[in-house]
């Protein structure tokens, strides 16, 4: 029995009748990701010379993460070890990225690419790596208060930077942290011993 409650779709929409809301959203997300990846491919990655050889990060990704590290961790004003000169924050991120599954690593690269080029909309066609300290911090704050996608991307990148800075032992005195108490107190490791029973 034909359902006559809804009028027939126009010609250019023909064939979309069986597409559910979930299917439409999935197709839209995949199309957006493909478009962004295509733009990244057309614009090309810059092969800027670099002194540090990374295992996983591309030179442009390392540049973005280095700039983000400088903005998020102004260590000189806090009397903490430098997040770029003393603590190898970006190298730590590189080691973490090298252990990621291929799909996760690709998504990270896409996220970094989008993050770097997103300011071109509101900062006179400047990339994140080209912004001054004040504008870069304003951009980070705007991303934190932005739509769901921007907040998620900013949270991910902030976690990468801050975790890979503070995990270095040279930063612990600034937190008045002297290391794991199991080592400090000489607690014997039990391995995978079963939990005690009452």
UniProtKB/TrEMBL annotation:
Annotated keywords: Signal
Protein name per its UniProtKB record: Uncharacterized protein
Annotated organism of origin: Alcanivorax hongdengensis A-11-3
